[in-house]
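Thread title: Can someone regenerate the structure for this chain?

I was given the following input by a collaborator and told the matching structure tokens would be attached. They weren't. Posting the sequence so someone can regenerate them.
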Amino acid sequence: MKDRVINALHEAWWRAIPLYIGMSTIAISQPMLDLYGKNLPVFSTAKVSRYEIAMFVVILVAVPVLIASFVEFLGRLINPRSGLWIRYGFTGLFGVFFFLTMFRQIGINNIIIVFGVTLAAASGIVWLVVNKSWAKTFVSYLAIAAPLVVGIFVLNTQEILFPGNLPIASIDSDATADLNKPPIVLVVMDEAPLYALLNSEGSINRERFPNLAQLATEATWHRNATAASNWTAQAVPAILTSQLPEKGDLPIASQHPENIFTALASHYPLNVYEPITSLCPTNLCKSFVPVGERWNTARFRGFLRDALVVFGHRILPESLRDNLPTIDEGWGGFAGENTEAPGDNEEERMSLLRAYGVLGPTYQTNILRDLTNRMATATTPEAYIAHLLVPHRPWRSTPDERVYRLYAPDVPQDVVPSDVDQRRTMYQRYLLQMAMVDTALGKMIAEMKQANTWDKSMVIITADHGLTLVPEGKVRQAVFDSPEVT
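Best answer:
Regenerated them for you:
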């Protein structure tokens, strides 16, 4: 028995691991780390720490290899030939992932072609590894790519992993406001174009949006203001820094050290909700989510759930991707899209809501209520700054915050249809969710007036960008052809 264990360890761990590392790298870790390394706002959205990012890399690089090796080890304990067939099986499985990713990249979506050729090609790899020593050697040498893939990912994410010391780190995070200064309230809506608010006379439609219409009569309305970008990760930093964005900017504090948070931190306690950006240094903000924690299990589990959805989109043909939660309408919260928060029980769902910030519309209005409650209980003037991901898609809320089915089967999610009835459906759903935002803002204003803080406060309500319903075009599309402002 002892000899069998030693032989199984030798075969499954020492001889098989280079092959598993090589195949797993080209099939799983390289495609995923390349994708995440080129889309850094996903990390600022998830609020994951560098330790959680490091664990994410370890899981992608090591876990598939360890699972394959361990299963082969168990198989060899039973029968050496079983272990060999398990090795061939995992080699074929990694090959399937690799060829599915390749077909996804070149845009072939016919299921019969994709899976037929993929299975044939993966079987070919297995045959070569079994029968040709040079093929087995070549695949094993692919293990060298693993540290290279990790190294490239670290280089791409160094602004996230190693932000360095910010020049504002010495600001007192326990600042108290001058009692003579007004409280500051900044609410940034997401994907809220002006035209949707207007009636035929060019004023805000009071029947649909009574609270915004009333606000326009009481406040200063800068109706000709335009967005600096139609990409949230650029548009919101432009608002928070008063600087035009440049291509390649990341929505993180190390790239935007001079912003509204660092400007106000010496004068006001800060209450901040940033679901996409991370411009407020963690030592300054009373955040709505625990962004300063080195490790948060619920947050990391939510991040991994999203990664599984992303992997599905990375490898599956179009008809199968339709069964997955969409990933093209935001930077996170994909796995929890069909509920206000994923989780096996209420405690886990609430923990994930607080820690990860599932981006459903009802959760966003709850943030606004939380902000209002903080204002009501504050004993000194404070600053309240929230970027709310509403009325942003998915459009599924009514004005009284009920949630209905995500999408009608015949209505696309990100492309404006040419069919007039489908466009009308899209617009109606958008207006319903915009009315929900109007209701939530009205409640905030009413509670501020009741608490006698409305006339004492500086309140700014704006939006990061809009959207379009031009037929057959993108609902919203960022253009990055110019190296300057996009």
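Residues 337-357, 480-486 have pLDDT under 50 and may be disordered.
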